[in-house]
Every structure is written in structure tokens, then in C-alpha cells.
Write a structure and sequence with these properties.
Layout lengths: L4 E2 L22 H25 L3 E8 L5 H8 L8 E5 L5 H4 L5 H5 L7 E5 L8 H4 L5 H4 L2 H14 L2 E9 L2 H13 L9 H7 L2 H14 L7 E5 L3 H19 L17
Parallel strand pairs: 2-4, 2-5, 3-4, 5-6
Antiparallel strand pairs: 1-6
Keywords: Kinase, Transferase
Organism: Posidoniimonas corsicana
Pfam families: PPK2
Length: 267
């Protein structure tokens, strides 16, 4: 199976050395679609067991440059999961109330409940990414947040939350093509903003910020997975495999039934 790029804690991660469009071997869209169907079916059944067990939690964190495909990944890898046991939290510009608290306050509130599968569309890492690139707070402030993020993630894992962090890695050329495709398609122009072009000019700054986040917050309890994302179907395949494998590792079990049910006939 295709695998994400992973690094041991302490290893140096350099995004220029990680291919956004690697050799996919014998895989193509058709074979990937078949495998995706298998993965999502297994994840659906395991998520049902996770909900019934109500002891563990799975949190999938998705980060990436604009157009990396966070929304598309969510649509494809969560097919069939019962909405009752599924939570999605998008992190956009913080509200005035959120700004009146520490930067992790809004994140901790969104952590999925026991028994649930949760996805963060962007996450706590925005406060060492966009905040850093746009100088929204001084370096003396954002530079201390890596350790606090690591401590926060440690707190979650010790409380029964399994964290799967995925950086959706695309090339600058692929981003250009996707932005142009939005402009050229009337049905997708609503997704385009002139601000996207201004953000694109900061590509190198964002890459540097991401590298620091990947290196400083790649821990044993919450490692990073770098997902080659220039091919959307390949990206979806890898994330679906990660989700399925993690649920299998959690091995959720149905709780025992109430005693004395044998022989009962519902009239």
C-alpha cells in the first residue's frame, strides 16, 4: 500500500526533499477507488464499534496550503460513517470571544467526545502558521507555542484520544493550476478570492513555518504524516488507509449486553 512520509522525532524534515507527486507504482485511479471502497467500509464498521464502546476517541488533524484538499479529503474518507458519531471542526479566523482566551481554548472545546471520530480542518497549528507569517503576534509569543501544543496533544492522548496529524503536501505549480481551475469554472469561482493571490506570494514563508511546525511538533505521541497531495486520488487513498489502520489498532469492542436478555420475546 502507498504510505505517507513519516519521520522519527528529532529527524530533520525538509519539505523540498519530500515529493508532492511521487512514483505511485502500479496504483491508478481505478485501483485506488476499489481500495478506497474497502477502507471506508471497514472504517464505517469500526467507527460504529468505537461509538458503541464509548471509551476511545480518534482525532484526524488536516493541515495544508490553500487548495491542498482538506475539504475533499474529508468528503472522500468519511463515506458512510454515522453522522451521530462524527464531528468536524473547521478553524477559521477566531472570533472576538476566542481572542479573549488563550490560543488553545477554542481548540480544546472542539475535541471530539469519547466514542467519536473527529476531524480538524485546520487546527491549533494556525497559531504558529498564519499568525507567524502575517506577524499577528510577536515572535516572542508564537515561538513559545510549539511546546504548549506538544503538551496539549500529550494531554489529549493520555485522556484516550488517538491523534493522526496529516500535512497535505502540494507543489507550488499544483496550487497554481488549482487556483486557475477555480477561476475558469463558473461553478467554482465562489471558492476563489483575490486574497488567495496575496497568500500565494507568501509561499516560501509558509513553507518555512510549516517545516518548523513539522519538526518541533513531531512527537512519539502525536507524529506527523506528510501526504503527497498533487494527485487527489492518491492523497485520499493514503488518508483513508491511515484512518482505517488507526481504527483497527484501536480495536473497539461492543460493550456487553444487559444480563437476562435470553428468552425475552418482544410482543
Amino acid at each position: 500500500m502507498p504510505k505517507p512520509f513519516t519521520f522519527d522525532p528529532g529527524d530533520k524534515i525538509n519539505l523540498k526533499d519530500v515529493a508532492a507527486r511521487p512514483d505511485v507504482g502500479h496504483w491508478d485511479k481505478e485501483s485506488a477507488a476499489e481500495r478506497m471502497a474497502e477502507n471506508t467500509a471497514k472504517s464505517r464498521d469500526l467507527a460504529y464499534r468505537l461509538y458503541a464502546e464509548n471509551k476511545q476517541t480518534l482525532l484526524l488533524v488536516l493541515q495544508g496550503m490553500d487548495t491542498a484538499g482538506k475539504d475533499g479529503t474529508i468528503r472522500h474518507v468519511t463515506t458512510g460513517i454515522n453522522p451521530q458519531s462524527f464531528q468536524i471542526a473547521p478553524f477559521k479566523q477566531p472570533s472576538s470571544e476566542e481572542l479573549d482566551h488563550d490560543f488553545l481554548w477554542r481548540v480544546h472545546k472542539a475535541v471530539p467526545r469519547r466514542g467519536n471520530v473527529g476531524i480538524f480542518n485546520r487546527s491549533q497549528y494556525e497559531d504558529v502558521l498564519i499568525v507567524r507569517v502575517h506577524n499577528l503576534v510577536p515572535k516572542s509569543v508564537w515561538s513559545t507555542r510549539y511546546d504548549r501544543i506538544n503538551d496539549f496533544e500529550k494531554l489529549l492522548t493520555e485522556g484516550g484520544v488517538r491523534i493522526v496529524k496529516c500535512f497535505l503536501h502540494i507543489s507550488k505549480e499544483e496550487q497554481r493550476e488549482r487556483l486557475q481551475a477555480r477561476l475558469d469554472n463558473p461553478d467554482k469561482r465562489w471558492k476563489f478570492s483575490k486574497g488567495d493571490l496575496a497568500e500565494r506570494k507568501l509561499w516560501d514563508d509558509y513553507q518555512e513555518a510549516y517545516e518548523d511546525a513539522l519538526n518541533k511538533c513531531n512527537t512519539k505521541h502525536a507524529p506527523w504524516h506528510i501526504i503527497p497531495s498533487d494527485r487527489k486520488w492518491y492523497r485520499n487513498l493514503i488518508v483513508s488507509e491511515l484512518l482505517k489502520d488507526t481504527l483497527e489498532d484501536l480495536d473497539p469492542q461492543f460493550p456487553p449486553s444487559e444480563e437476562g436478555l435470553d428468552g425475552i420475546v418482544v410482543e
